[in-house]
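Write out the 3D structure for:
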Amino acid sequence: MMENNVLTKIYEEQEVAFREGISGSEVRIDEVARFCGWTQTKKDKEYIRWETVNGFLFELGFSQPVGKGDFIPEYIMYPLIGKANNDRATQFMLWVGKVLVEIRQNGAYVSPDITPLQEEKLDKFSTNKKIKSTFKLCNIEEIEAEFKECMIYYKNKDGKEKNAIQNTVINALNDRKQTLIDSGKGSFALVLAEVVNTISKKKTETSNKRNGQTIRYKNGIIDKQTQIINEKDEELSNLENTIAYLNPSIDEFMCFNIHPISENYMYKPINSYNGGLSMARTDTYNTWIKNFPRYKATLKEELNIEWDKPVKVFIKVDCLERFDTTNFVKAINDMIINRIYDEDDKIAVDTQIQRNKIVDNYSQGKIYFCIRNVD
């Protein structure tokens, strides 16, 4: 059964929940724990031994503690089930693998009674790749409506996943805008730039509401675009120069010869003095901080940045194919803005990250970083 983007299947008379996240297939941890045998019974009621589950996850490098109703990604599920080392868990793992193959055949699980409208939404929004394709190919005047439909499709996702989806849309539109500029279609690029900024403002406003903040986001470029489209070529050229300022070329980026680190590997749970769990930096993250080539950073006084005003950050990465680039933002901004330039990274009202190229190993990884003031 499919409900709210969560698929439930029956195995040994028990419901097992799956969902297709923006980064891949996921399985609910409750069922995994039960079939692995990590439970205890008190007064005829079964309880999951979460300390055991989180202990195994920590050993596997998955630092985020889990609890009732949480989902874990497929890549961590297989080695986690392997920790159980029993036949029942192995059979469960083989069954789960078959279900996930079924999901991947269509980018998501397709119910036999799917409606034409549901199938259309599935084709447009069910995976990261399909989202990018939708926003690169749809008519410009339809983009805002498609964005609204996309967010409705993912209305039951948490704030972090919604933010990742919004970033996917914005990156796809920025790629499309750059293609228009490169092909000499400046007027179309201006219209698209207005749409991108409108969506970016909605993303920022939504994020600020979740944090109980009210921030007014202003962009002088947007205020001028409708007028500039119908003005002289010289005025259009001036605006394209401004757009170029907010779309720096790779030559304008600082380059750090180090592979970026995912936020999934930054922190780990540890036992605190009162017996609870707290979070601490992982050895991997500490090593990454220590080895970061800070000397490659442009001197602060040469950046021409007004640090008391909002900034936009542009990041490109050379990284292994298996990583979701949106998970690199936290560590990169913290390292460069906080640690190198000694500023609060909250001044970054928007961060645009793109994969520059795929590499074969960690030693080939690179981070390209550029920062600009925005009005």
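The chain has a mean pLDDT of 84.
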